[in-house]
Amino acid sequence: TNFVYATPFTTSGDAHGDVKVQYKRKTFLQVRTRMPCLLWQAEVTQSWMEELNPLQVAKEDIVTKTLALYESLKSDDTRIIQLQLQGSIQATVNQGPLHLARELLGQKPVTEEEVIDWEDLRDAFIDFMHVCRCAISRNKELMINSRSEYHLNLEHNFAQIQKDIHPLLLA
Question: Which domains does the chain have, with CATH numbers?
């Protein structure tokens, strides 16, 4: 059985920092026993680490948001869709997708490795925006008239984010 846990860090030694300097160390553990089991401790048979740079950390976050939003589309419950949309496109979300895009897509890096990660992040944002658009459409289909003002607010926020992110995706 495999387990993974992640630890945020910065090269300056702080655990957390601005998104441009936020790295993540993922530790993978392989244990001998199958889970669940009644043992208090399981023997680790193998372990390895992977370090993600800020672009990779942001991509992982955006992909996670995109998948959660995509999964919500399978539901006929507008509350689930709206909850995911709210966390993705509401203007009050700190450190949200728009902040990540502004900070990390604003300037194309120079090294080949960073350019590849930058392009991967840009592609993740393109997918994210597409799924947001689908979620807004799905929400509108399922919506009861009493929530129309809320939906109009979601559409407005999405239009604003789309306007702000679009130039960053064309770079």
Answer: 2-52 (no CATH), 55-170 (1.20.58.740)
